[in-house]
Amino acid sequence: MSKKQAYIRNFAIIAHIDHGKSTLADRIMEMTNTVSQRESSEQLLDDMAVEKAHGVTVKSRTVRNYYVDPAGQEYEYNLIDTPGHVDFNYEVSRSLSATDGALLLVDATKGVQAQTVANYRLAKEAGIVLVPIINKVDNAMADVDRTMLELMDLDPSFTPDTTLKISAKTGLGVKEVLLAVRDRIPAPSGDPTKPLKALVFDSKFDPYQGVVVQARLFDGRLDYRDQLTFMAHQISTLSKEIGFFAPQAQATNVLSAGDVGYIVTGIKDPQAVQVGDTITTSDHGLLSPLPGYQTIEPMVYAGIYPRGGQYRDLKVAIEKLSLNDAAFQYVPEQSEALGTGFRGGFLGIFHLQIIRERLKSEFGLDVITTMPNATFRVWVQGEDQPRYIENPNQFPDYHLIKEVDEPYVLAKITAPNEHLNAIMRLAEGRRGELIDLATIGELLSITYRMPISEIAYDFFNELKSVSHGFATLSTSRDDYGPSDLVRLDIAIDYANVDALTFVMHRLHVQDFAQVLVTKLKDLVPRKLQSMPIQASVEGRVIARADIPPLRKVAAAGSKPSKKQQQLRRQGQKAHIDLPQAVFDAILDINSH
């Protein structure tokens, strides 16, 4: 360990949503004079509007703080912020891999909750040191003793003596937190003389500078204008600028083992460099990358369409969003009912919600988003290779299909013993298959194999509800598995509406179709004539309702003739304006 490294600490703060992570980060920056009172604002690291609205960190940030201890020694504290929702699990794991320790923050009014345990598990898998902290101890609703017992159940090494009690809001106990970072989180131990080995834990795209990455250097030295190689795709580039955030960008000439900083790469393809990539020098570099890199694959897909002919504006906005969010993917899509738009790929429903809200808050665009779905693998008669279907409209006709497979995940749930029955009922009601049941101290670890389509909508929220907030969910991809899936087509006024095409399990389709046509009857805008809504599967109508006309028919003779009805059936497209309320109602059906 170099002399410089002895005075570096790289750490994260991990917590359940709304337990005070961003507030503690603000106090640390204030008490190390990283930001002045004039510059200070609430949730300084959560600078996106959607982050402040949801109280969730979406994009990880890092900031270098300079801490002077009571003996007068200055330390470099690199605080690496982490995303705070289960959809961003991979980014959390990579951010934690860039640290040597983490502050595990628990709200004294709520105790250990879902993301507390999930992040604890990720930190343990990363092999980093944890410092337990109970926050909001000055709150009238605080129950410090109960929270302490829950922490000791989580990890017996968490004792009253090793657990700090603080109020991040008032600053009570934060001095002790700064000392604990110095004394309990180890200094980095990399070798500056070895080949450069750096981990990318965040990346964003700048239209002028190209891809800008944040990286932790484990070994070696990085000089301004070094020729670098990003090992996942073997992309080489010259570093245009290097530096660190404090919290604003500050350029420097050298970063070395133990440091955390940014690199301006000049790479113009935002998909070329992703979180988890390893950086080395092009000359005398590493032979093998750091472990743990994954290509980010969407879990769900949904259509995004503009309202009122704002396609050009939506196209520009989506391009800009994708540059700063490598996990968000999109392709153009045409719908007869909704016009020209895009099919987006998302990490989960919360990620979709974030993109939708960013389109509104950052670009002033109100969009229609269709019902999300997973990718299906379909084996078709007479074809040797399967088709991968992301859009339900591309799902083949039933008489052409040999077999349909859908993607599965392994859902690992941790919860207190008393919630086991409720969780098992929930999981098995979503076609979950129990794989493993184990005990961790006072908690249970329950592993289910479940279809992505069954957990995509509100499984996370339902799990929190049945466990009163004490269960945690972490998911990892599993393989595809055979499934009895069918395509549900909705016709309005005898014409199929492509935006209302669904792929779902045969067990659910009858109930879903009946509820859907009943809801559509009230939500689809009326016309002068009555319009039937028909839900059909495999050429057979399984549910029907009628949209009443705008006004009652004045005379009996004004009822459409059989010939008129037949003409309407013969391929005429339904010109229906579908409001977002239709798709919100569909999501509501899926959540029950």
Quaternary structure classification:
single chain
Number of strands: 30
State Rg: 27 Å
Number of domains: 5
Euclidean distance between termini CA atoms: 57 Å
CATH-defined superfamily of the largest domain: P-loop containing nucleotide triphosphate hydrolases
Q: Taking strands numbered 1, 2, ... along the chain, how are they ordered across the largest sheet?
A: 11-10-16-7-8-15-12-13
Approximate shape: globular
Summing up helix and strand content along with how strands pair, one would put the structural category as: alpha+beta
Mean pLDDT: 85
Q: Percent helix among the residues?
A: 25-40%
- Residue share in β-strands: 25-35%
CATH topology of the largest domain: Rossmann fold
Question: How does this model look, in words?
Answer:
Helix 7 (311-323) packs across helix 8 and helix 12 packs antiparallel against helix 14 (580-590). Strand 5, helix 5 and strand 6 form a beta-alpha-beta unit. This protein has five domains: 5-184, P-loop containing nucleotide triphosphate hydrolases (Rossmann fold, 3-Layer(aba) Sandwich), CATH 3.40.50; 197-281, Translation factors (Elongation Factor Tu (Ef-tu), domain 3, Beta Barrel), CATH 2.40.30; 300-369, Elongation Factor G (Translational Gtpase), domain 3 (Alpha-Beta Plaits, 2-Layer Sandwich); 376-483, 2-Layer Sandwich (Alpha-Beta Plaits); 486-590, Alpha-Beta Plaits (2-Layer Sandwich), CATH 3.30.70.2570. With 592 residues, the chain is α+β, with helices and mostly antiparallel strands. Residues 37-41 and 43-60 have low confidence and may be disordered. The strands form six sheets. An eight-stranded antiparallel β-sheet has the order 11-10-16-7-8-15-12-13. The chain has a six-stranded mixed β-sheet with strand order 2-3-1-4-5-6, sandwiched between helices. The chain has 14 helices and 30 strands. It is found in: Cell membrane. InterPro entries: EF-4 (IPR006297), EFG_III/V (IPR035647), EFG_V-like (IPR000640), LepA_C_sf (IPR038363), LepA_CTD (IPR013842), LepA_IV (IPR035654), P-loop_NTPase (IPR027417), Small_GTP-bd (IPR005225).
